[in-house]
Please model this.
Amino acid sequence: NSYRLWSEAGEWLGEVAGKMLHEAGGRSDLPVVGDWVVARPRPGGDRAVVHRILARRTKFSRQGAGKRTSEQILAANVDCAFIVTSLNRDFNLRRIERYLTLTWDSGALPIILLNKADLCPQPARFITEVESVAPAVPIHAISALTGEGLGEILKYLAKGQTGVLLGSSGVGKSTLINSLSGGPRLRVAPIRESDGRGRHTTTSRQLVLLPGAGMIIDTPGLRELQLWQSEEGLDLSFRDIRSLAAGCRYGDCRHQSEPGCAVLEALDEGILPAERLESYRKLQK
Ligand code: GDP
Ligand code: ZN
Model:
């Protein structure tokens, strides 16, 4: 229920105005990390009230569980998404493709960072491979540890620009943020706020201001791909549909209205529940 706000005047603890809360139609009408807001400081203190969210230029979101239309926005106004992979173990073109898809969907500009260049004497081969799946996307071989290539990253993060790091655990995202922010990231004790019903919520710092440069959003929910429905996840979750699909007449059957579609046949026969096919289609989309 509370937010950290940054302004020219410093940092405030923000809360949403009652009217705004009342009029919110869903979670997406409330502030998320990266939002630019209109807020009014309370006199004599470090608190402010948020009255409005400015239009979001880009957003990373996922469909919330439960209610069909509840969109969960993970971050707003990200200008560039650094897709981080490491040049040793993590390297995986399919994964890069999926992060690219997510980034294009969000409206942010993708940049691919091949980290741990210090461990890889010949990055050129990898760069060529990545180019084949990411035409026109900037690719940089860097080392978060030695600092190689960090200047290139900062060029994308001028003042007022917001970046995000996407990538599997272990590729070096935290190390990179520490290097960019010029020191170990401050560990800030979460603020505890009682919501009046005895429960406690916590907020922790999710936006890192880089000295003399832009910002990086660092939230656990956004970092890793597992949190979205990945294609493997889709295959695993809908094995039944996948195996039915093996019986379709056409290899590229989309199970919409094609003749000889085994999936639609199973639907007609009541073997496959209509809701299941519907949610498969939705996730696939
Ligand atoms: P995260 O899970 O993506 O945040 O990854 P971390 O930042 O925690 O890094 C995982 C491990 O990789 C740590 O042991 C880092 O020291 C190491 N690491 C990160 N960047 C580099 C790099 O550029 N070169 C090398 N050799 N190791 C790195
Ligand atoms: Zn079919």
Summary: The chain is about 30% helix and 25% strand. The two ends are 32 Å apart (CA to CA). The mean pLDDT is 82.
